[in-house]
Specification:
Elements lengths: L1 E5 L2 E5 L1 H10 L10 H10 L4 H10 L8 E7 L5 E15 L9 E3 L2 E3 L1 E4 L3 E4 L1
Antiparallel strand pairs: 1-2, 2-4, 3-4, 4-8, 5-6, 7-8
Length: about 120
């Protein structure tokens, strides 16, 4: 387990178990053929190095999320997505309520929420 801190939130993450989950988990496009999921997979390749470092530090494969959805599309064609990723670990300390945005990296907002059996969801 490694301990990480994000704006007053302290979590511990089991990187090995999280990576093991993602090694077995499927790409989102393997069980969904909608254009939104296909577009999101392509968008993952454009994530900044800061975002990719965050995913790597948590053991997460961004193309294998728990859920992805489009919030809206701007007139210029820019899509705004939401999604959930799973992390094996524990929330040790909270600075604000669960599910509230705790940080933003390069325009991507994220928060944590606890699920049963040591699974933390990165929203």
């Amino acid at each position: 387990m490694i301990k990480l801190e994000f704006n007053g939130w302290k979590i511990e993450v089991d990187i090995d178990q999280t990576k093991a989950f993602y090694e077995k988990y499927h790409l989102i496009t393997e069980d969904c053929s909608c254009h939104y999921c296909a577009n999101y997979i392509l968008a993952c390749d454009t994530f900044s190095s800061n975002i990719m470092e965050l995913f790597q530090s948590l053991g997460v494969d961004p193309k294998k999320e728990g859920e992805v959805f489009q919030h809206f599309q701007q007139e210029d064609g820019l899509h705004f997505y939401g999604g959930f990723y799973h992390i094996v670990g524990n929330i040790l300390e909270r600075s604000i309520g669960e599910g509230q945005v705790i940080d933003a990296i390069d325009g991507i907002l994220f928060s944590f929420t606890e699920l049963p059996e040591r699974e933390i969801s990165l929203l």
